[in-house]
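Exercise 7b. Backbone tokens:
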């Protein structure tokens, strides 16, 4: 399986602007710029997209891990906070809240740790990955 995305940039790094389009067109000429990346401008940015990818990948992996252990989650909500320091992504912090009938906190932590270590986005990130996982 392969997935694609295209970035187009016009102008200098600080004054220019660009847009991103994904294969699925979920992002379709979505604006990004210096301001959306390093300030509070309108549009997305690569770090926000990495955070979304990590949260989505981890959450789905956790659902598979729980299913493999005989548990069906009612819900899993994950927030990823990606930190960019001096031009380097240094960390992704996951905050996970889940409703999983019949699971013990210990078994849930084991499943969450497995998903954190083994989701494909965790494996590709060259950054520290921390996590807070709790049952609702």
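Sequence design result:
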């Amino acid at each position: 399986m392969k997935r694609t995305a295209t970035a187009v940039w016009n102008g200098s790094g600080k004054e220019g602007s660009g847009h991103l389009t994904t294969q699925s067109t979920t992002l379709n000429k979505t604006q990004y710029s210096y301001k959306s990346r390093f300030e509070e401008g309108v549009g997305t940015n690569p770090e926000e997209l990495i955070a979304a990818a990590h949260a989505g990948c981890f959450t789905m992996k956790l659902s598979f891990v729980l299913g493999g252990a005989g548990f069906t989650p009612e819900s899993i909500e994950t927030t990823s906070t990606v930190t960019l320091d001096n031009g380097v992504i240094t960390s992704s912090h996951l905050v996970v809240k889940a409703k999983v009938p019949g699971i013990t906190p210990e078994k849930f932590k084991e499943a969450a740790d497995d998903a954190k270590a083994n989701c494909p986005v965790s494996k590709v990130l060259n950054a520290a990955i921390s996590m807070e996982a709790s049952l609702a």
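Instructor comment: The helical segments are 34-38, 46-68, 105-118, 120-124. The domain at 46-135 is CATH 3.30.300.20 (GMP Synthetase; Chain A, domain 3).
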